From TrEMBL:
<keyword id="KW-0067">ATP-binding</keyword>
<comment type="function">
    <text>Catalyzes the attachment of proline to tRNA(Pro) in a two-step reaction: proline is first activated by ATP to form Pro-AMP and then transferred to the acceptor end of tRNA(Pro). As ProRS can inadvertently accommodate and process non-cognate amino acids such as alanine and cysteine, to avoid such errors it has two additional distinct editing activities against alanine. One activity is designated as 'pretransfer' editing and involves the tRNA(Pro)-independent hydrolysis of activated Ala-AMP.</text>
</comment>
<dbReference type="InterPro" id="IPR004154">
    <property type="entry name" value="Anticodon-bd"/>
</dbReference>
<dbReference type="InterPro" id="IPR045864">
    <property type="entry name" value="aa-tRNA-synth_II/BPL/LPL"/>
</dbReference>
<dbReference type="InterPro" id="IPR002316">
    <property type="entry name" value="Pro-tRNA-ligase_IIa"/>
</dbReference>
<comment type="similarity">
    <text>Belongs to the class-II aminoacyl-tRNA synthetase family. ProS type 1 subfamily.</text>
</comment>
<dbReference type="InterPro" id="IPR036754">
    <property type="entry name" value="YbaK/aa-tRNA-synt-asso_dom_sf"/>
</dbReference>
<dbReference type="GO" id="GO:0002161">
    <property type="term" value="F:aminoacyl-tRNA deacylase activity"/>
</dbReference>
<protein>
    <recommendedName>
        <fullName>Proline--tRNA ligase</fullName>
        <ecNumber>6.1.1.15</ecNumber>
    </recommendedName>
</protein>
<keyword id="KW-0963">Cytoplasm</keyword>
<dbReference type="Pfam" id="PF04073">
    <property type="entry name" value="tRNA_edit"/>
</dbReference>
<dbReference type="InterPro" id="IPR002314">
    <property type="entry name" value="aa-tRNA-synt_IIb"/>
</dbReference>
<dbReference type="GO" id="GO:0005524">
    <property type="term" value="F:ATP binding"/>
</dbReference>
<dbReference type="GO" id="GO:0005829">
    <property type="term" value="C:cytosol"/>
</dbReference>
<dbReference type="InterPro" id="IPR004500">
    <property type="entry name" value="Pro-tRNA-synth_IIa_bac-type"/>
</dbReference>
<keyword id="KW-0547">Nucleotide-binding</keyword>
<keyword id="KW-0436">Ligase</keyword>
Length: 567
C-alpha cells in the first residue's frame, strides 16, 4: 500500500488534552481522531489494528464453536424494564424516544436481547448448550470520558453469551471462556492478569476480570507476591485471623471532642491509635438507612457493601439524612444508642475489638471504652473493607501487592437472572420446564488497542506486536527522485507482498527526517530503508522494537523479515 494513498495525519506536537501515552500516540501517529467528547473515529491505520484484534477473537471463538451474529444497537426499553435494569443501570444508559414517543435505549450490553431472541426459538434441552457472540459498537454515557479509548461513550466490544441446561453446564462454559481468553490475550502479546472481579450491573455470581498491566490503568490489581491469588481492589480480601481478644472491659465514658473532623483528628485528640477507634458511616441503600462500621484505620469497600446488601442503589447519606436518622452530624455518628430502625452492618474486624472509641450521635462528642453487646446493639459482620498493601494474602501465602491495570475483558456467571425475568425456559429430559442458565463474556476491543499501545510504546512512538500491527513492514525509499531507489523499493515490495507480508511504502516527496519520524510514530515492526547503497543492492534493516540496525543485501531481506516476525 502506498502511504500517499492512505489517510495518516500525523502530528508533531502532543494535543493538550491527551493525558496518557496511548491517547497521545494514537492521536499523533494518525490512528484515531476525536469527534466529540468520548467518541472517536478510527482512521485507516486504527481501523486495521481493530480488524487484527477482531480477527484473533473470531479465530479463537471459531475453535470453540462459538458462533457470531449481529444484534441491533437501538433497543426497545421494554426489555430492560422487564429485566429490571432500566431503572437500576444508572445515568450511563442512553435513553431516547422515537417519533411515536416509544422508549428506546442505545445498547451498552445485550443480555436481554440475546435472551429474548432465544426465547422464541429454543424450547428443548437438546438445543443446549449454545454459544453466541457479536462484535459491535456499544454506548455508555460516561460522566467524564477520559484517557482516550480507555473511557469513552462509544466503544467497540465483543460480547458472548452461553446458554446451558444447568449449573454444571454453566461451570463448563465459564471454564471454556477462561481458557479461550488466555489464548486470545496471549496471541495479542499482552501482559495481563486474570483476577477476581465484581459483576456490578451485570448481576450473577462468579466473575473474573482480565487486566492489562499498565501504570496508567484506572483499576488497581491486588495480588500475592508468593501465590497466584489476584483480585480487583473492589473484591480483594486479606487474611483474617479471628483470634480471641481477652482484654478486660472498661467503663463506658462520654467525652467531648470539639473540632474533630476526621479519624486522624480523633486519634490525635484522644491520644489513641486509629486501630482502636471505630469509623461509622451512614448509607442509603435502596432508600433505607444502613449504618456501616469499620475500624478507624480501614475504609469501607462500597462494592462489597453493595453486594452484601444486594442493593440496586447505594449512596452515602447527606447531612440532612444523617441528622434525621442519627440526630447528629456525620463526624459524630456511631452505633451506641442509635435509633432502632437503622440497620447496622460491620466489618468482621470490629467483632474482635474491645474498649473502642466511637461516635456518640451527639455533635462534638464520642464514647471511649465502648463494647459490643454491652453498649452497642447486635450487628451483622462481614468483610466490608478495602484491603491495604502489605497485608497477608487471604490464602496465607505471601503479602498483598498493588499494581495498576486496564480492564480488557470480563466473564460472568449470570445464572437465571435474565432467563427468569424474560421467560427463557427449556423442557428437560423429564418433561419439566426450567429457566436456562446463562453466562456473559466480554472483551473491550477498542480498549485492547489502547492497552497494547500503553504496553508497547517507547519514547519515539508506537511499537506494535506482529499479530496486531496494521502493516508488517514500513518500506522507505529515501528519495522519490532517485530512480534506482524507486526500482529497488518496487522489487522489495513485490518480494514481500508475494510472500504474504503487508507492506506500507512511504512514497511521499518528503525529507528523510520527516519520513523516519513518522515511521517511529506509526510503529510497524520492520523498517526497510532504501538509500544511497541502493545501486549496490544494499538496504538498511531496522527492528522497530529493539532499534537494532543492520545493512543487508536484498537477497537476505525475506529471511530477516521472517525471522523478526517469527514466521
Amino acid at each position: 500500500m502506498l502511504q500517499s494513498k492512505v489517510f495518516i495525519p500525523t502530528l508533531k506536537e502532543t494535543p493538550n488534552d491527551a493525558e496518557i501515552i496511548s491517547h497521545q500516540l494514537l492521536l499523533r501517529a494518525g490512528y484515531v481522531r476525536q469527534v466529540t467528547s468520548g467518541v472517536y473515529t478510527y482512521l485507516p491505520l486504527g481501523h486495521r489494528v481493530i480488524q487484527k484484534i477482531e480477527k484473533i477473537i473470531r479465530e479463537e471463538h471459531e475453535k470453540y464453536d462459538v458462533v457470531e451474529l449481529m444484534m441491533p444497537i437501538l433497543l426497545p426499553a421494554d426489555l430492560w424494564k422487564r429485566s429490571g435494569r432500566y431503572d437500576t443501570y444508572g445515568p450511563e444508559l442512553f435513553r431516547l424516544n422515537d417519533r411515536h414517543e416509544r422508549d428506546s435505549i442505545l445498547g451498552p450490553t445485550h443480555e436481554e436481547t440475546f435472551t429474548e431472541i432465544l426465547k422464541g426459538e429454543v424450547k428443548s434441552y437438546k438445543r443446549l448448550p449454545l454459544h453466541l457472540y457479536q462484535i459491535q459498537t456499544k454506548f455508555r454515557d460516561e460522566k467524564r470520558p477520559r484517557f482516550g479509548l480507555l473511557r469513552t461513550r462509544e466503544f467497540i466490544m465483543k460480547d458472548a453469551y452461553s446458554f446451558d441446561v444447568d449449573q454444571a453446564g454453566l461451570d463448563a462454559s465459564y471454564q471454556m471462556y477462561d481458557e479461550m481468553y488466555a489464548e486470545i490475550f496471549d496471541r495479542m502479546g499482552l501482559n495481563y492478569r486474570g483476577i477476581i472481579g465484581d459483576g456490578g450491573a451485570m448481576g450473577g455470581s462468579d466473575s473474573k476480570e482480565y487486566m492489562a498491566v499498565a501504570e496508567t490503568g484506572e483499576d488497581t490489581i491486588v495480588y500475592s507476591d508468593e501465590s497466584d491469588y489476584a483480585a480487583n481492589l473492589e473484591m480483594a480480601a486479606a487474611y483474617f485471623d479471628k483470634k480471641e481478644n481477652d482484654e478486660e472491659l472498661k467503663a463506658l465514658e462520654l467525652v467531648e471532642t470539639p473540632d474533630v473532623k476526621t479519624m486522624e483528628d480523633l486519634s490525635s485528640f484522644l491520644d489513641v491509635s486509629l486501630d482502636q477507634t471505630l469509623k461509622s458511616l451512614l448509607f442509603i441503600a435502596d432508600e433505607k438507612p444502613v449504618l456501616v462500621v469499620v475500624r478507624g484505620d480501614h475504609d469501607v469497600n462500597e462494592v462489597k457493601l453493595t453486594n452484601y446488601l444486594s442493593a440496586d442503589s447505594l449512596e452515602l447519606a447527606s447531612d440532612i439524612e444523617t441528622e434525621e436518622y442519627t440526630g447528629s452530624t456525620p463526624g459524630s455518628v456511631g452505633p451506641v444508642q442509635l435509633k432502632s430502625d437503622v440497620r447496622i452492618v460491620a466489618d468482621r474486624h470490629v467483632e474482635l475489638m474491645k474498649n473502642v472509641v466511637v461516635g456518640a450521635n451527639q455533635e462534638g462528642h464520642h464514647y471511649i471504652n465502648a463494647n459490643l453487646n454491652r453498649d452497642m446493639p447486635a450487628m451483622e459482620f462481614e468483610d466490608l473493607r478495602l484491603v491495604q498493601e502489605g497485608e497477608r494474602s487471604p490464602d496465607g501465602k505471601g503479602r498483598l501487592k498493588f499494581a495498576k491495570g486496564i480492564e480488557i475483558g470480563h466473564i460472568f456467571k449470570l445464572g437465571t437472572r435474565y432467563s427468569e425475568s424474560l421467560g427463557l425456559e427449556v423442557i428437560d429430559n423429564t418433561g419439566k420446564s426450567n429457566p436456562v442458565v446463562m453466562g456473559s463474556y466480554g472483551i473491550g476491543v477498542s480498549r485492547v488497542m489502547a492497552a497494547i499501545a500503553e504496553q508497547y510504546a517507547d519514547e519515539s512512538g508506537l511499537v506494535w506486536p506482529k499479530e496486531i500491527t496494521p502493516y508488517h513492514v514500513h518500506l522507505i525509499p529515501v528519495s522519490m527522485k532517485d530512480e534506482t531507489q524507486q526500482a529497488l523499493a518496487q522489487e522489495i515490495y513485490t518480494l514481500l507482498e508475494d510472500a504474504g507480508f503487508e507492506v506500507l511504502v512511504d512514497d511521499r516527496d518528503e525529507r528523510a527526517g520527516v519520513k523516519f519520524a513518522d515511521s517511529d510514530l506509526i510503529g510497524l515492526p520492520v523498517r526497510i530503508i532504501v538509500g544511497k547503497k541502493a545501486g549496490e543492492g544494499i538496504i538498511e534493516f531496522i527492528n522497530r522494537q529493539t532499534k537494532e540496525k543492520i545493512e543487508i543485501p536484498t537477497s537476505e531481506i525475506l529471511e530477516n523479515v521472517k525471522k523478526l516476525l517469527e514466521v
